[in-house]
What does this fold into?
Amino acid sequence: MKNKINYILKERKEKIILPEKLGFGQYFTDHMFEMDYSKDKGWHNATIKPLSEIYLHPATSFIHYGQTIFEGLKAFRTIDDEIQIFRPDTHLERLNNSAKRICMPAVDTEFVLEAMRELIAIDSDWIPNKRGEALYIRPFMFGSDPALGVRPSSEYKFIIILSPVGAYYPEGFKPVKILAQDDYVRAVRKGLGECKTAANYAASLLAANEAAKKGFTQVLWLDGVEQKYIEEVGTMNIFIHFKDEIATPKLTGSILPGVTRRSVIQLLKEWGLNVTERLISIREVIDAYDSGNLIGVFGTGTAAIISSVGLLSYKGKDMMINNGNVGELDLKLFNELTAIHYGEKEDTHNWTFKVEKKAIEV
Amino acid sequence: MKNKINYILKERKEKIILPEKLGFGQYFTDHMFEMDYSKDKGWHNATIKPLSEIYLHPATSFIHYGQTIFEGLKAFRTIDDEIQIFRPDTHLERLNNSAKRICMPAVDTEFVLEAMRELIAIDSDWIPNKRGEALYIRPFMFGSDPALGVRPSSEYKFIIILSPVGAYYPEGFKPVKILAQDDYVRAVRKGLGECKTAANYAASLLAANEAAKKGFTQVLWLDGVEQKYIEEVGTMNIFIHFKDEIATPKLTGSILPGVTRRSVIQLLKEWGLNVTERLISIREVIDAYDSGNLIGVFGTGTAAIISSVGLLSYKGKDMMINNGNVGELDLKLFNELTAIHYGEKEDTHNWTFKVEKKAIEV
It folds into this structure.
């Protein structure tokens, strides 16, 4: 049975006026996409409808047992006033990998991509047009059985919501302060670390809170076994720019396989730079710093794209990176990626997917 | 400002007829307790109302970032037709410990206990009266900010629902088969293992599914660092009955501090037995088995109370425990605990909390 999108559209008479300060994930567009899964019907009830509350029985399984996954990606309004999504195919592929890890059903990625495009087309007036602003796309799925008992749900709901978001750095590209610590562990190999599921974010809150109290923007996580190797930063992957190498932690199972991470690795390779994915100990980073071989440190993620690290601290040792300034390479990567996002530069990688503005007759 | 319970009660004319097979977490009583938290008001809106759906904005933070905790405890109808809850004070203390670990607000345990008793009193006709049956109580809390962004929510909802449950072993106390494996890790020290949060259950699903396909009831988890020490079983803590010692894994941070575990340790001590909380390697269990020093293995948990392990398997080695029969000590513990639950034996530990049948004027 072929899945088909049903449309229930909101009548909007007034013009959409976006707030001056969009922030992140504070505002949502008029519509959402929703579909249901059951064992006998598979995915069904695909509907684009006005953004509305979800009704859940209080025993709904994911509330108690955490069977929930999500993705985060962005659509941009290009300088030619076109709309394009950055690597939705890769994001949906990762969604299905996450689903598998916690016993959830896969989605038909082509169908979901189609639904995503339709949804964005319908709500395209919500896409901001200032540089740095974008439409954040949040697909998510959860187990919806209304019964207690630790087992995979037999029913699921998949939803996409859209949020116009501001520039991550409203005052310009600014280096962040991160704290490497071994008081808390986010994830461990053979666990859920590589799965984009709620569990990993719950695991990060207390450490992030304590770091924030000390003036740090985010936490640099160490591996859960030896607490020796760097893994990832809060909501980003991490890259260490050594004198003759740009290294990023290899995917051991406890690290989120970031789409921006993947894009950056590809760009660096194309630029002829020596980029590696390997184990990197915090000790190695400190030694490189002490011997003057640490050129820069930066994070990659959908929200910030590229984030320069100006200060890295570990066990009381404060390492000021590149005199606290934005690294040259960091900025070059940021500019390259944003040039692709906003259509200033040709997309030679087929990373962007266009959205037709009038995808359906409303 | 003192929190006060508001009542919106359902009018029920027909008599409650419980299904013959209650199962676990399938049926729910007429009412629920609910209260809200905000930074300025603290906990407020405490209400006992008809069981109803929760309305959530699709961006509600816990759906995405997993800030959710729960408890599971039971109320029993005694042989004298009284109603009593087993160790609610200890469960609510653990709830607050869980809350702290993931940056959630604590509840006033006395107030919540009062609300729990009122709720149970109102729905007391739902409490089954057959031996082995009980009223399962599920308090839970989640972050309810309607915004995306990885940070502790500023608003929360706390709910209690009640579910009449059947005997865990409808055909009598029956040994289970468990599989120790090192393909997956549930939790690691400094992570969320000791916190009763959704994350740990999500982390357990795939391993449990694969074990079930091989005919095992549950998974015996090994520690996440060395994958050498036994930690806990699916939904239970584990005890190893050696010839001259009854040992249970010590609480290293990755193990749920079970209330039944705690009760069993106390009982065993009172019975003059040598009970220890320590690291127990899977190798030590195998060696004890091989040398004839392994008397029994059993699990403890609110659902099953005590569960005899009849078969323990690790890397292809099947260990038939006590010839696959229920251990003498396991049965003695089960009988002792259930005698306290159902009021056949005096509660000398102050573990039970009575519920007055007409707590309020309805």
About this structure: Helices of chain B lie at 61-65, 88-101, 109-122, 198-202, 205-213, 259-270, 282-290, 328-341. Chain B touches chain A through 64 residues (CB under 8 Å). Chain B has two domains: 6-167, 176-341. The domain at 176-341 of chain B is CATH 3.20.10.10 (D-amino Acid Aminotransferase; Chain A, domain 2).
